[in-house]
## 1
Amino acid sequence: MARTAVIVGGGIGGLAAAVGLRRIGWDVTVLERAPAFTEVGAGLSLWPNGLRALELLGLREQVMAQGVVEARGGVRSRTGRWLSRSSSAQIERRFGSPLVVVHRVDLIRILLAALPAGVLRAGVAVTEPPEADLVVGADGLNSTIRAGRWPGIIPRYAGHTAWRMITNPVPPLADGAVTWGPGERFGFTAMAAGRVYCFATGTVGAGRTSADGEYAELRRRFGRWPDPIPALLAATSPESVLRHDVYELPPLPSFVTGRTVLLGDAAHAMTPSLGQGACQALEDAVTLAACLDRDGDVPSALAAYDRVRRPRTQAVVRRASRLGTIGQLAWPPAVFARDVAARLTPAAVTLRSMAPILGWRM
């Protein structure tokens, strides 16, 4: 008789875990509190480690077909001067895969298509611990599973707010870029069908909103920034702008208690500075399935998962937090020193420093 798993949360990590567990013969149910399995979001970056995880799920080529390889990218100063540049060809030579940008909706759709309809139950709010051989908490930053089993773990505001949006079709961009200003950032990268995924950050108090809307706030903050930022904002529908205060989790002492395990943002929510949120959730999912496949004893397999995933993901959280702090510097001498340091650091050194993250393998 197949062992049973209940996965609470139908986002990227939860659905990927369901695919992975079904591939090793588990009977899986995914519970999602929203009335439907949909994703309200913008774009996301899939780095080589995330694509490697998708390959282990048998979904890499489907996702690649929906995404766009970012040919070149880098970091610019507030004046538009390049501080550092890299290419997807360099990333692929070193790590075996390029950097691919996809719409969250497309990734969710592919994951859903890999699961039979009977596995998915929407509109279910979990208030009591489910009964199963395994319970997976994949219900995000404000996880109810974590709150019930890991009391006292409170997400902390990272000190800045993020805006995300997808433009209407625009002329092709030569490069993607993140532009650093004092206390603000604006990034953009091409997506399919001529659209562009844009993201921005600003040092804003938690919970503060703009009286005349978030699109107007973006135009005030970034409307005079270097090209092509003004044109990208002009090509953005105001109603498409998503605003989220950025939170991260303090380090948990364990991702496991009994037969309950956490993954994704429920375990290690991080700032988006490294573009690793989805990638780490995908790594979690395939690692969990691999541990359970290797070891028939669930508690022992979960202990192995915790030994592997917790140190790695918490290191990524710390690194993303540091980069977010650097990116949000506002004091002019600190901004000047940051930009000079970025300009003087060879691209090869920057790429080599990413090896512990992007070079991940099972």
## 2
Amino acid sequence: MNPQVMEKLKQQLEQELQEIEKQLEESERPQATELSNYDNHPADNASDLTDQLTDMVIDEHRGDNAEEIKRALQAMEDGTYGKCAVCGEEIPIGRLEALPKALTCVEHAEQREDGLRPVEEDVLSSTPRSDDFIELEEFGSSDTPQDKS
């Protein structure tokens, strides 16, 4: 890889890391807007909780993003930057310019490092099986006997 391109990507990663770390420092811990829940409507409490959870998830995402950037910077130090961590092939420069923290080629981008997939994928599918509905009807439905004929 061209040294000028590598330096440009490194500066871009370092700048992005500084911005994320600054945002994490400035991020306030979620606090309730009311001192007492005694006279609050449940929807007000739910709104507070939603705001708190949203802020926490955004901070967690920023932290994950910072870790990815640190891994990319470490790969630059190790001399492995620009090569796919899975197959060892060169990562196209266009991908690195678009996503400097990328450590895999496009073909391996969807694979998670730990090999785990969301547990929901074991249960859910994009097309329901016909016996799924039969199993659900065992728990009851609003259909009348005439509807089932």
